[in-house]
Design brief:
The complex is a heterodimer of chains A (about 110) and B (about 120). With about 110 residues, chain A is mostly beta strands. Chain A has strands spanning about 5, 10-15, 20-25, 30-40, 45-50, 55-60, 65-70, 75-80, 85-95, 100-105, 105-110. In chain A, the strands form two sheets. In chain A, strands 2, 4, 5, 9, 10 and 11 form a six-stranded mixed beta sheet that branches. Chain B is mostly beta strands and about 120 residues long. In chain B, about 0% of the residues lie in helices and about 50% in strands. The chains are: A mainly beta (about 110), B mainly beta (about 120). The interface of A and B includes residues 31, 32, 90, 97 and 98 of A.
Chain lengths: ~110, ~120
């Protein structure tokens, strides 16, 4: 069975500060990992993904994530938070022959002025 | 290229009724998946359709069903609605060019409220 754990359901940072959203996964086969962002009353927008190859992946809006197999982690970072980054962020996993995504419970990011 | 579209965006139904939601995938995408999002259970996989066939199904009762048409458009149906079916229903599409994991792109969702 596969699973995704997001540590911290709510994270608050000051504008301009580092954003770090944590994601750990469990999978018996090599996973594909994704970060999605959801703004109020909207669907999910893909931020970035890891499939194979380079373990540091860059996404949209200045976000990046590093796949660490030894730590089974895929944490999302952004060097400097902007007010527009306030949203809910979901880490997701897909593996094996299944295309379905298994999601973490989400992290609500608040950016303080 | 146009994104995933879902209709309607908002829906209000009463208990016992049935509802049909529609999803049009990105052009060229052959796989459509449906997810239910609720505050209590989070994002849960309902089912995936590929080439008009249900390929995978999540752990939901038989009241939840779906289908896919030859143009890859998909519908999901919920019969005998219950209060707990109130949720945001998200559709996602992917190219499904390989037999394994794929990048899914989501639509804006349909907000279903059951009274």
């Amino acid at each position: 069975a596969q699973s995704v754990t997001q540590l911290g359901s709510h994270v608050s940072v000051s504008e301009g500060a580092l954003v770090l959203l944590r994601c750990n996964y469990s999978s018996s086969v090599p996973p594909y990992l994704f970060w999605y962002v959801q703004y109020p009353n909207q669907g999910l927008q893909l931020l970035l993904k890891y499939t194979t190859g380079a373990t540091l992946v860059k996404g949209i809006n200045g976000f990046e994530a590093e796949f660490k197999k030894s730590e089974t982690s895929f944490h999302l970072t952004k060097p400097s938070a902007h007010m527009s980054d306030a949203a809910e962020y979901f880490c997701a996993l897909s593996s094996g022959s299944a295309r379905q995504l298994t999601f973490g419970s989400g992290t609500q990011l608040t950016v303080l002025p | 290229k146009a994104g995933v579209t879902q209709t309607p965006r908002y829906l209000i139904k009463t208990r016992g009724q049935q509802v049909t939601l529609s999803c049009s995938p990105i052009s060229g995408h052959r796989s459509v998946s449906w997810y239910q999002q609720t505050p209590g259970q989070g994002l849960q996989f309902l089912f995936e359709y590929f080439s008009e066939t249900q390929r995978n199904k999540g752990n939901f009762p038989g009241r939840f069903s779906g289908r896919q048409f030859s143009n890859s458009r998909s519908e999901m149906n919920v019969s005998t609605l219950e209060l707990g079916d109130s949720a945001l229903y998200l559709c996602a599409s992917s190219t499904a060019t390989s037999g394994g994991p794929d990048t899914q792109y989501f639509g804006p969702g349909t907000r279903l409220t059951v009274l």
